[in-house]
Amino acid sequence: MDIILEGIKKAFWLLVSFDPEVLGITLLSIKVSGSATLISLVIGITVGASVALTRFPGRRIVVSLINTGMALPPVVVGLFVTISLWRNGPLGFMGILYTPLAMIIAQAVIATPIVTGITLAAVQQLPAKLRLQILALGATRLQMLWILIKEAKLSLLAAVMAGFGGVISEVGASIMVGGNIKGYSRVLTTATVMETGRGNFDVAIALSVILLLLAYLINLALTQIQQRERRR
Amino acid sequence: MRQWALILWGVALCLILVAESSAAKGKTLILATTTSTQDTGLLDVLIPIFEKKTGYFVKTIAVGSGQAMTMGQKGEADVLLVHSPGAEKKFMEDGFGVTRRLVMHNDFVLVGTAEDPAKIKGLKSAAGAFKKMASAQALFISRGDNSGTHAKEKDVWKVAGVKYEGEKWYQQTGLGMGQTLNVAAEKKAYTLTDRGTYLAVAKTLKLDILVEGDAVLLNIYHVMEVNPQKWPKVNIAAAKAFADFMVSKETQEIIKTYGVDKYGSPLFFPDAGEKLEDLGK
Question: Is B21–A100 a contact, with Cβ atoms under 8 angstroms apart?
Answer without folding.
Answer: yes
